[in-house]
Amino acid sequence: MEKNIINVKNLSKSFEVSSKEPGLKGTIKHFFKRQTKSLKVIKDISFEIKEGEIVGFLGANGAGKTTILKMLCGLIYPSEGSILVSGYSPFRRKDNFLKKITLIMGQKQQLIWDLPPIESFYLNASIYEVDKFEAKRRIKTLSEMLEIDDELYIPVRKLSLGQRMKTELLASLIHEPDILFLDEPTLGLDINAQRNLRKFLQKYNKETNATICLTSHYMKDITSLCRRVICVHNGSISYDGQLDHLLNKLTPVKEILIVCSTEEDVNKIENYGFTIKNKIKNEITIKVENTAITSSLRTILNNFDIEDLYISEPPIDEIIGKILIKKKL
Amino acid sequence: MNLSKYIKVYTKFLHTSLASELEYKTNILIDLLTAILSLIGSIFLLSIFFQNNSSIGGWEFEQALIIQGIYTILNGITNTWFNPNLSEIVKHIREGTLDFVLLKPIDSQFFISLKKINPSGILEIILGFFLLFYCMKINQIILSFNLLSLSLITIFCSVCILYSLWFFISTTTIWFVKTWNATEVLRSFLYIGRFPLNSFSFSLQIFFSVFIPIAFITTFPSEVFLGISESWKILLEFFVAIVFLFTSRKFWLFALKFYTSASS
What we know:
Largest interface: A-B, 37 and 28 residues
Largest sheet of chain A: 6 strands, mixed
Oligomer: heterodimer
Order of helices and strands of chain B: HHEEHHHHHHHHHH
Strand order of the largest sheet of chain A: 5-6-7-3-8-9
CATH architecture of the largest domain in chain A: 3-Layer(aba) Sandwich
């Protein structure tokens, strides 16, 4: 049984924010007398994450995902509640704790802009007290996994966004952290670069048993990497559990498109008692509950003369869209 | 604190920042030329002040040149270390890249204060020392071990005071987000440090000793060089440097508790 590596209990966070009325009058008023109010962005959340788990944090912009991630890695001090990450209280930022974690942000970079990434890798290695030979070995292993080679010796400013993200990952993993916090790591990357990054993260998790906490607006990142998701809505957790269960819950029905030999067969299927979505010439689409998929397929194959069939689910983005706006799932 | 780790990391800082700067050769040449021209311009300006007066505030031209020498050394240190690093603090906080610094197992103040160097400032430091040695010759100052060590200690103290002031102002960015102007004002006050404190009115002398301690930054070390400083001034300089360093450190650690990071 794997132990919990992250324990969060009754966590809340409030920020002081200032608001400004529009126009010149509002600007002058704002300059002399700033109206501030306390905004509770995280509201009494609790969860646990096991060692080696990949957990996706889902939520609309401003829901509080990044704030949670930043509190987990010790950047932001919680207003209430407790956090334990790998046995440490993150905000104390003890060296031994910092050596166990890494934060990768898709929209921010730490590599030295004018130099090849290899220089930043060795700098990070000296900060994390990784000796030169060990650093060399790790760079070799990670660069093979990330499929980068020449890019290590080209100034960062000359690299494409995809190449830069790979080198950013390498720089963040040189100390072999146990926990990876990834904040929208595939932001702005093309489809191939996104796929490569996901492949790498899967492999890294499998080989090192590292725990990964991820936020992303690209649903493919979540569906291909995370078995478990935590949905955040207005600072509260609206769902915490298996992604499959959530998808089943939100889409209890699948669609089956049946291509028949003749229109006569289409009429037979129509009269059989299935719920019909639509029919066009010799094609008919029926709706079947997830629990009845197997029996329905058996009935169709045994009783009708069909040429082909396709099972489709509503697009994942559509389902996730529902998640983002629902308070309770 | 693991000293050997910090030495190793600083060596890497030196290596990477030199390599970064050397990527832009023309920029370095322009900086070097600017440093030389700036020193010539400052000496010319000082000579204009002394054209009709043999002494200002009790300081003769040859003695005032010592202040210019110390100012040049300090300006060189500012351009080599403070400007490339401390000006970046505002950027780090505004853009949220301070996150990367805070998540590294290294002292954050060490990291953000020393990560970069600008090699062209080193020429200014060398020029400043040349000017100082030239002034010692024309002022017929005999360099003894005591004088040299006392002078270097006071210069070191003035560097600490200047660093602490700059770092303190930059730290306030955590609350105020934008404080470029405040550091620019500090640099402008430093220009005043090219002139002897006695050349200003009494009220300004108080202001530049108490509120903006320019007196501690250039005038007191110059007096040590000339052998006209009193021992209480040296002790006071040392005490002020320690207080400033301690306060700026504590203030940084306090301010970090309020760091909210930039939104993604």
